[in-house]
Amino acid sequence: MSNSERLFAEAQEVMPGGVNSPVRAFGSVGGVPPFMVGAKGAYLTDADGKEYVDLVCSWGPALLGHAHPEIQSAVHAAVDRGLSFGASTPDEAKLGKLIKDRVGGVDRVRMVSTGTEATMTAVRLARGFTGRELIIKFAGCYHGHLDSLLADAGSGVATLALPGSAGVTAATAAETLVLPYNDRAAVEAAFAEHGANIAAVITESAPCNMGVVTPDAGYNKFLKETTAKYGALLILDEVLTGFRASSSGYWGLSGKDEGWNADLYTFGKVIGGGLPTAALGGRSDVMDYLAPLGPVYQAGTLSGNPVAMAAGIAQLTHATDEVYAHILKQSTALQAKLSEAFNEAGVDHSIQRAGSLFSVAFGTSAKGVHNYADAQAQEAFRYAPFFHSMLDSGVYLPPSVFEAWFLSAAHDDEAMEKIFAALPAAARAAAA
Ligand code: PLP
Fold first, then answer.
1. Phi-psi region for residue 191, left (φ > 0), alpha (ψ -120 to 50) or beta?
2. What's the 144 CA to ligand 1 centre distance in angstroms?
3. Mutate to test the pocket of ligand 1, among 141, 203, 251, 269 (most ligand atoms within 8 A of CB)
4. Ligand 1 atom closest to residue 269's alpha carbon, by position in its atom list
5. ipTM entry
6. In this structure, are residues 91 and 99 in contact, taking their beta carbons and an 8 Å threshold?
7. What's the pTM?
8. Residues 122, 48: Cα–Cα separation, whole Å
9. What was the pLDDT predicted at 170?
10. Which one of 54, 152, 237, 263 is the catalytic residue?
């Protein structure tokens, strides 16, 4: 029995499914998940001493690579000053300012601890500000595990093929209108019917939790214009794409050039540098509706935690243009090698992109993937043999076809060559 097999068996005695987040259980790809004991640069090391090139990067946060020396030393220094003070600290506004300076329309920032909290607060704030009840979300988008946004959600909900979640009341579900992604007519029809009671549209700025789906040209701008026309808010969920798709998130690849800002944004992952921090940001008149200035309540014992703030500041300070250019270059090269391997093995596929983020969708070359129905219709069964062949060759991919692949500044040519070398056999496994 390997150490990971033993650890997984022990974990299953203590935790539901042996995990603290469902996709980690390898449910859709099968097998025993390797338990990790170390991470450095582009590599993970498991409990049996096997090393993997990591293409998950902690699901996004490890932008600079694991255990980046500048983040490690900022964290060590912060730890030495104390772990948590339960009072304001200088670094909170400093991290807030780094976010504000990079993303248009972020006048104010409120730190929270997880992306789920950020979107939950954004939804409550939108309702409080507008005095309306309905929220529009898109099928296949994942915004965390808050009750009102679990319907037709992506990520683990898609991986486990669930329609939503037990435990969400019918009344809560009825306050969320779920529409197909990239479908302007559906949005127009929903506003024509319910416009006076729609508080907000929440969307991933580029969906990455049903696999990656590129928004049609001008789609986010259309959402901004439509919400504005009806007095509703646009909440751009950049928890995954923020400070990763570009130095100013996916907004930097869309709104920045097109001349629009969201009313509210949610951030997470990268801004915590690997520690639990997320944030909500946006227009000052909306944000100032939050307590203590306004009537919408939100709070957190560990919000703005000083160790997490230090990690986030170090991460964003070192996330230079060169970092983003490097990640994009390696991502583009990997996409090309991936297509080459699949083409040689005769595996029909398409590669979906959002900045440096991408994923593969099998059997979709004819029309690509534009929404959740397209993503679900793919030949998903090809992913498990592909995934396991890569894992055996020492490459750690997301354990679900419905997740994006992540690279980091630490993915040097040596790490990339290891990935490239593993691809042909894995593509043949996918063909079988
Ligand atoms: N929003 C998006 C777009 C996400 O991808 C995620 C997590 O993957 C969340 C929100 C929830 O963030 P967290 O897992 O930190 O609660």
1. alpha
2. 5
3. 269
4. 15
5. 0.99
6. no
7. 0.97
8. 42
9. 86
10. 237
